[in-house]
Known about the structure:
This protein is α/β, with parallel strands linked by helices. The protein is built from 14 helices and 15 strands. The protein is 36% helix and 16% strand. It starts with a strand and ends with a helix.
Amino acid sequence: MILSRILPVFVLVVSALCGGGAFAQEPLPYTARAGLLAIGEDPERPDVEFFHADYILTGADPATRPVTFLVNGGPGGASIFLHIAAIGPMTIATPGDGSFPAVPARLEKNPDSWIDFTDLVFIDPVGTGYSRVLPGPDGALGDPKKYYAVDSDMHSIAWFIRQWLTVNNRWGSPKALAGESYGGQRVAGLSQILAQDYGINLNRAVLISPALRTEIANTRYSVLHPITDFPTQAAIAAHYGLNGEPTGLEALEEFERFALNELASGLVKLGRSDEATTKAFYDNVAGMIGLDTDYVARKRARIGAQDFVTTLLQDRGLMIDRYDGTVASENPIPELPGLNVMDRSLAVLTGVLLPPFMDYVRGDLGYASERNYIPLNLEVNQMWDRRSAAGGPDDLALALAQNPDLKALVVHGMHDLSTPYFLSKYVLEQSVVTPEARKRLLFGVYPGGHMFYLQRASRTAFAQDVRAFYEGIK
C-alpha cells in the first residue's frame, strides 16, 4: 500500500506573459495542488510526511513533459523562497531592483515562471514548512533529528521523489532537480544517489547559488579562498564606484584574471618579496576591491566576507549585505564588526514572503493546517550533522560521467559573498575533467546577490537560460 495525502486540486489559468517577462505565448492552463505525502525508507511504513506544492500543465503528455523537483537550503529552509520569489506561477510583487517590497507584500503572476517548460514540485524537507515526523506504532512522535543530517536528508528527499513519481504515474517523464544554496549541495549529492540507489536518472540538474560541500580549509595559509572571493569583492567595489572598473558581467573576466595571476602570485610570494614589491601588491589589491592599502596589508590581502561587508563603506556609516553586496544599510552597532543583522536573507525576507504565501496556500491552493508553517528553522540548522562528505563537486562529476543524459547548470549572483560564484566554478572545473562530461556542465552569473532573481532583469535572464537548458530534454 502506498500512502498519499494530497488534497483535491485547485485549477488556475495564468498567462506566461505578464509585464515583459521571459516568455511570450498564450495563457497556460495548469493544475495546482498542495498537500502532504507520507514517506519512509519502506513505503509500507512511512515515518515522515512531506509538504509539497505541485504545478502540472493541463493536457501535456507525461512522456515528454519534464517534471522538476525543487528544494531550498539552510539547512532548515522550506521551499517558499524559490516557490514565490523566483520560479512558481505566482510571485511577490517587488520593485525589481533587488530591494524588498513594503509589507504586507502582494502576489502577482510570474512572467518568468518555469511552468512554461516544466511541471514543478516544490518540496519542504523534514522540520520545514508543514513537513513533520509521523507517530510511531505506539502513538508517540518519532525523533526528527535522524533526518537532520547530510545523508539521511538526501535519502528522505529521494524517497519523496520516488513516491511522488509512483503516486502520480510519472516514472516515464523526463526528470530534473533544482536547489538553492544548501539545496545546491542536495542536488549535487542526489544527482548521484538517485541513480545509484533508486534507479532514477536525472535529465537536468540546476544548482542555484550552491553551497557545495568542499574540503578546502580556509586558513591563514590558504590562498584559494582569497582568490575565489576576489572577483565578487571587486564586482561589489565596482558597483559603488570604488575601483573605476565596469559594473557589468563583462568586468568579471578581468577580475578573474587578476585573481588567478597577480593575486595568486602575490599571496604565495608574501614574505619572499622585497618591501617595494610587497607594497605595490597591496596597493593593487586594495585598489581593485575598494579598501585602504594599510588595512589590506594588515590582513595580508586575505579579506574575509565579514571583514569586507563591515569595512567597505564604513566611512559612510554603512555596512553591506553579505548575501547581496549591492544592498547597503546603516550599521546600527558599528563597534561590533562581526554583526550579522543586515543579512536580510536570513531575517527580513522571511517576513516579507510568509504572509502572502499563507493566504495563497490557504485560499488559492485550498490547503489549511493547524500546524505552524516554518519557512526557516534555525533549530534544525543548529542541530544539523554535517559530517558526511556527500554533496560535493565530485558527486556531480561522477553523476555527469555515469549518466550521458544528465546536464548540469550552475548559476550564481555576481554580488553574493555567502556563496561566491568563482569558488563553485573553480571546484567544479577541477572535478569534472572528462571531456564529454565537461560539455554538459554549464555556468551562469547574473547581477545581484544570493537571491539574484530579486532583480527582475536577472530573473528574466535566468528563466530564459534555463528554458534553453531544458531544450532537447527526453
